[in-house]
Amino acid sequence: AEMADTYSLDEKVLCYSGPELFLAKVIEVDQSRDKPYLIHYNQWNKKWDEWTDASQLKKYTVSNMELKKKLSKEKAKQEAKNKKRPRETGSGRNSPALGKTATSNKKLKLTVDIPKGLKEQLIFQEQSIFKDHKLLVLPTETCVDDVLGDYIKNCRNADEDTKTVVEGLKTYFNKSLEAFLLYNFEKPQCKSVKKEQTGKEFSQVYGPEHFLRLFVRLPEFLEHSTWNQTTSRTVQQKLSEILTFIQKKRSQYFKEEQYHDPGHDYIQSVQDL
User: Fold this and answer.
1) Distance between CA atoms of 232 and 228, rounded to whole angstroms?
2) Is the Cβ–Cβ distance between 24 and 39 less than 8 Å?
3) Which of 68, 124, 195, 197 is most enclosed, with most CB atoms within 10 A?
4) What does the DSSP 8-state code read for residue 90?
5) Largest Cα–Cα distance in the chain?
6) What is the mean pLDDT of residues 44-66?
7) What predicted TM-score, i.e. pTM, was given to this entire model?
8) Which pLDDT score, from 0 to 100, does residue 130 have?
């Protein structure tokens, strides 16, 4: 049950603030307190840090990120209805949501719409890891480099913009996987892979399963980019094309048998971390 969820130090979470969910991190745990988790909201001054309990937190998963988007849209609709009224604080307590409204319209916001079939694949990953305690077999049959190579080969117009976006995605994947794209359950496996696959980049070892997670995080990663409208639209179009391509290749790229039971010792070692 949701109320029974526990959270660990340095865990990335989603935290309620008023009617919305915000990306946050657990920076201190003290189980002797009524509110045992000290939370720091991403990209907000530490003055917003606050103690909270598990009822205000949600695990950082794809399905909960979808809930975050839904709540934000609902809040935006409500604000649009009330736009002629003076702006209210809403939650009745200090909240990082207040600063967001003032600046959000000044930025070009990248949106990444993940096709329904790929969202289902992301949810299947979560269930395999959290419920079944399974891991992806590494190196994967089809790695990220293979996926992007297939896309380029099948692209009708592989112009410089296409190649630039592809190289950018590969760079983001290699630099962000270990810190941002892995669940805690997968991190010991990653350490082993780095030793076993010396000299190889993550994009040569991990496959489309983890690559999809990058698309979930891209709007956050690119939030402070200084692109003009033309560049932003070009990038968004290329990302959409790549996701559509992966969706078409879904039966080839994603196979249930690519997951395996890592064994009791591995599961126990993760629980002991």
Assistant:
1) 6
2) yes
3) 68
4) -
5) 61
6) 88
7) 0.63
8) 86
